[in-house]
Amino acid sequence: xxxxxNLLQTAASIxxxxxxxxxxxxxxxxxxxxxxxxxxxxxxxxxxxxGKPLWKKEVNGxxxxxxxxxxxxxxxLPQMAPMESIEGDNRDDKAPLPKVKPLDKIIVALAxxxxxxxxxxxAGLIVWNVGKPEDFIHSTEIGYIxxxxxxxxxKLQVGDRILAINGEEVNGFAGSLDxxxxxxxxxxxxxxxxxxxxxxxxxxxVLRSGFKIADSPWFRRSGMRNVGIGVPNKTIxxxxxxxxPAFKAGxxxxxxxxxxxxxxxxxxxxxFDLIDDAAGKTFExxxxxxxxxxxxxxxxxxxxxxxxxxxxxxxxxxxxxxxSVEPVYPTPAKQVGDSLRMMWVTIAxxxxxxxxxxxxxxxxxxxxxxxxxxxxxTENGWRRLIWFLVLFNVNLAVLNMLPLPVLDGGHVVLSLGxxxxxxxxxxxxxxxxxxxxxxxxxxxxxxxTSKDIGDNFFWGKTEAPKWPTSGAEAQG
Length: 476
Prior knowledge:
There is one protein chain. By secondary structure, the chain is of the alpha+beta class. Among the domains are: 2-130 and 403-457, no CATH class; 235-318, Pdz3 Domain (Roll), CATH 2.30.42. 40% of the residues lie in helices and 19% in strands. Strands 12, 13, 14, 15, 16 and 17 form a 6-stranded antiparallel sheet that branches. Strands 6-5-7-8 form a 4-stranded antiparallel sheet. The two termini are 39 Å apart.
C-alpha cells in the first residue's frame, strides 16, 4: 500500500512540474501573441512545445497546438522573420503579407520577456505573503577540516571564524552568493585567500589555500572547488537499518551522538572520519536520548553489498540544526534583484578564464525539472517552488533578450538595424542565419541535457576529492 501511495505522490509531483513548465511557456508566448494581435500582425500558429503537433485546432485563422518535443514553444509570426524551417509552415495562402513597422516588431519581441518578468513578479508577491524557508547557514565558524586537505595545508583551524574570502566579506556558510561555500566554488585564480578571526589572536589572520575539484566521469558535470572544511552541527541519528550494528547496539532515530570514544563531536563529518574503514573495531558512543545520556558500544562492519569497502553501522542522519529553515518574507524587488545578480555572477564566472565554472554547469529542461521536483518534495516545498519560479522566469526573460538570432533580443536588434538602414535583412539570408543559430542552440541544449541525465540518472558517483596525506595515514 505504501508503494502505491509513493507512486501516486511521485506521479502527482511530476504532473505539477510539467504543468508549471507549460504555464511558464504559455505566459511567455502569450505576451508575443497578444502584442501581435494588438499591433495587427498576422498570427499563423500558437504552439506549446516544438515538433509536429500531437494536437491542433484552428480558431479564427490561428492554429493552436501541442508539439511532441517537450520543451519550448512559439508563436508563428511570418511578418517578423521567416521561421518555417524551425516552426514548420501551415499557411495555405502564400500571398505576400503587408510589411510591419520595425517599432511593431520590437514591441512584439519585447512582450514575451515582459510577460515572463511579470510572472516572476507575481510569484514574488506570493512568496512575500506566504513566505519561504530561509535555507541558510548563518555560522561562518569552521567545525571540521579534512585531514590532508588544502585547508589543512593552509593552516586553517577548527574554531576559526571566516570573515572574508578573496577580500570579499561573507555573511554565512552556505545559501547565498556571499556565503563561504559559494565564494569558494565561484572563486578565480590558483589560490583562495581567507581572512579569519582565531580565538586568542588579537588581529584577523590572512591565510592562502589551494583547492581540489572532485573527479567525475565524462558523462557528468565536473565538480566545483573545495578546500575541505565543514560547519559545526549535531550528529543526529535518522533511519536505523534493522539488524545492523547500530540496531543491535540499541541506537534509535532521534538520538544525538555526543562523543565517540571520549572525543566530543562538533560536526557529523568527524563522525564519518572515525567510523569509516574501521571494521571490527568497537566504538563507545555517548548519546543524548530525550533528557538522558546513555553509553552504547557499536562495532562497524562492511556490508556484503557495499561497493566502496567502507565500514558502516547502518544508520542515516537527520539535519543537524546548522541550516536555518525559519520562514522569511523577501519583497518581490529583492527576489528579482537576487535572481538578476545570481544570473550575472554565473555568466561572469562562465566567461572568466580563471574560473572553474563552465557552460556544462548550466541546467537544461531535465535538470531544471529535477530541481523543481526536489524542491516540491521537501517539507514546505511548495513555498520553495514558488520562489524558484521567480528565479526561473527572470532567467527566461533575460536570456531571451540576448542579441542572438532566433531569440527575442535578436529580433529587437534586427528591427533596430532596419530602422537605421531603412530596409530589413533579406528573407533568405535571415532564414539561413536563424536556422544555423537554432541548430547551435539545440546542440547546446542537448549537451547540457546529457549532463543533466548523467548527474541525476546514471549509475556511479562523482568521487570526492582525494586529499594528499603527506605520508600520514588518511582517515575515513
